[in-house]
Write a structure and sequence with these properties.
Largest sheet: 2 strands, antiparallel
Number of strands: 2
Shape: elongated
Distance between the termini: 144 Å
Low-confidence stretches: 7-18, 24-34, 76-81, 96-108, 161-177, 242-273, 414-419, 425-447
Helix content: 40-55%
Structural class: mainly alpha
Strand content: under 5%
């Protein structure tokens, strides 16, 4: 019979004494890792195989369903060639026949950006998506947003002032705005040589620019909208509906006059000029309190009916000669031009309001997409609150601009016609302030 082995001696610390560091280290197994809430995705390099996965990602972004969710609906290429009757017949036919599943998927209904990220991830990372869904979705989302941000930073060279090929001196557009327009399909025969050189330079720096321009370049917030006005007294005009610059410069040919160069005292031309005689100001009338009783037989001053300036202006207006028909025609033409100018400004403001409303709708969609990403676990709570606050500030600024434009478009009452009609009545009837004052004097005597 084999002898029994004695158990190893163990030292136990008393209840009131904490275990030593060596004992604590021995109690925790080395092979067991602390539990984590989410698996970490293995590091992924997008540069592998000459950016193969990046090109696949851009290709999947251009798929009709994903493009509709990420960038909006594509305009039908043949829509411009169709007449109104053909478009109406197609609409009526689609209502009768109904829509198939492919059309519903293309229009994307209420689909959000996470749905597009999910479709792209399942396509290019099929195996990893099965084991680590959240990490792959986050990887695709970050790469899509990074590509769009890089595209916008390079696209600024085509519509910001001072970004020519050879430096700031090449750009002669002092007004700012869109200096070189490149259509979404790329340069064409109308593209100037300066824009072609700039296009090739940007494509060398950022190889994905050409493909991303076909996708992102169709959006209005990347390609600024230009409102071309009619031919006015200063030539044709082009309005860029964008925020004004912080530095306001005065137009050429009209230098600003500094107020410090204007003296507050007027000096006479000759040194021996006689002094100007000034009359003492008239004493103001003494008003008696209403509660004081008037004595019988005492005369009192009449009540002032109208001011002296009103009486003088009415007298001068009565002695003015009637203007001829040519002056009336000039006045009518001037008023017509003013009305036309106001109508053009009102239309421009209305178009700006429409653009701001479109931007406000895009921000609302981004807020909804942000909430979906937070629910899927792609964003933590702090990042969600920061981005949601940024969207709120943008919407507040847009609402302020819309309220200003709507207040400017409200019709204002024209007081010129009312003043002229009163003046004509006073001059034609032959009474000014005299008749009114006599009536009020009679009322005073009756009192």
């Amino acid at each position: 019979m084999a002898p029994k082995k004695k158990p190893a001696a163990t030292t136990s610390a008393p209840d009131n004494q904490a275990p030593s560091e060596s004992q604590a280290a021995q109690s925790i197994p080395v092979d067991v890792e602390p539990p984590t809430g989410r698996k970490r995705a293995p590091p992924f390099e997008w540069k592998d195989n000459d950016y193969e996965k990046v090109w696949e990602l851009i290709k999947e972004m251009g798929v009709k369903t994903n493009f509709t969710i990420l960038f909006g609906k594509k305009q039908d290429e043949d829509a411009e060639n169709k007449t109104e009757d053909e478009v109406g017949a197609e609409k009526r036919g689609s209502k009768k026949k109904g829509k198939n599943k492919d059309q519903t998927n293309v229009k994307a209904g209420g689909a959000k950006k996470p749905a597009a990220y999910q479709a792209i991830a399942q396509k290019i990372f099929a195996e990893e998506y099965k084991t680590n869904k959240a990490a792959v979705l986050k990887r695709v989302k970050n790469k899509v947003e990074g590509l769009i941000a890089d595209y916008k930073s390079h696209a600024k060279a085509f519509y910001s002032t001072g970004n020519g090929v050879n430096g700031p001196s090449d750009n002669t557009d002092d007004q700012g705005g869109f200096s070189h327009y490149i259509p979404p399909e790329g340069p064409c025969h109308d593209t100037p040589p300066v824009a072609l050189n700039l296009w090739s330079e940007v494509c060398k720096k950022f190889p994905f620019f050409e493909e991303l321009h076909k996708l992102v370049g169709r959006r209005a917030n990347v390609v600024p909208i230009v409102i071309n006005g009619g031919l006015g007294p200063h030539g044709p005009s082009a309005i860029h509906p964008q925020m004004p610059s912080d530095e306001e410069t005065s137009p050429p040919g009209s230098p600003a006059v500094e107020t410090g160069n204007i003296g507050p005292i007027i000096v006479p031309k000759t040194a021996n000029a006689p002094p100007v005689e000034t009359k003492p100001a008239a004493k103001p009338p003494v008003s008696t309190p209403a509660s004081a009783k008037r004595k019988r037989g005492t005369a009192h001053a009449p009540k002032p009916s109208m001011s002296l300036s009103t009486i003088k202006s009415a007298a001068e207006r009565a002695h003015k000669k009637r203007r001829g028909p040519e002056h009336e025609f000039l006045e009518i033409a001037r008023e017509t031009q003013d009305h036309l100018r106001e109508d053009r400004l009102r239309k421009n403001r209305q178009e700006e309001i429409g653009l701001l409303l479109q931007q406000r709708g895009d921000i609302l969609k981004q807020q909804s997409s942000l909430l979906d990403e937070f629910r899927l676990g792609l964003l933590d709570q702090e990042t969600y609150h920061v981005r949601h606050g940024t969207f709120g500030l943008q919407m507040d600024s847009i609402d302020t601009e819309i309220s200003k434009l709507r207040a400017a478009n409200e019709p204002q009452t024209d007081r010129r016609s009312s003043h002229s009609s009163l003046a004509d009545m006073s001059s034609s009837d032959g009474f000014g302030g005299t008749q009114i004052s006599s009536d009020e004097d009679d009322e005073g005597e009756d009192d």
